[in-house]
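help with this record:
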Amino acid sequence: MSYRILFVEDETDLTLIVADTLRSQGYDVVTAADGAEGLEKFRNGNVDIVVADVMMPKMDGFSLAREIRKFSPAVPLLFLTAKSTIDDVEEGFESGANDYLKKPFELRELIVRIKALMRRATPDRSNDIIFRIGCYSFNVSTQTLSFDKHEVQLSHFEARILEHLAGNIGKTVDASQLMIAVWQRDEPSNRNSLHGYIHKLRRALRHDPAISIINQRGFGYMLAVKNVL
């Protein structure tokens, strides 16, 4: 099967190199020179995966991702960017990205990332990682939290944090370990972000009063469920 890739990048030389390389690997590649053109081509074509730069004219990558997510919540989206601060990475995932590759990058790594995203987009559901948290079911693979007949789509960071907490129910997870696992670094700004995502997870889990996320001050956080055998 030949997957169709929408490659959105305003650097002409880079577009030619990447598009030629991907086509040599058997992919069908559609290109766009800015975010607005990328959105138009996404709407008009059957796209299997989007690879987009962040800093582009007319519409940046973050805005493009948000617009794409209005039409397709599931299409894999990979950002290419020279922006490397944790705020940039966080905004990228929050806008709807599935992966992030920093410039300059090796073409081989880009191809590996694309293959990994496509495997995750068409997974064998029998291999999904699922945690039972009180009355909730948390699917790590799809980043969904289900309760009764309701399903909530978690963000990338919410899902990563909950995965680590759910894997250690009843145990305190060190805050530094959480930040390194999620952001690959422990910095003061990350601590504020971590606290904010913990607050969002508490709200997402609020329908089961037996569940709590306890802040062990000076240590970390513990996911607790009462009466769990």
The mean pLDDT is 85. The first helix runs from residue 12 to 24.
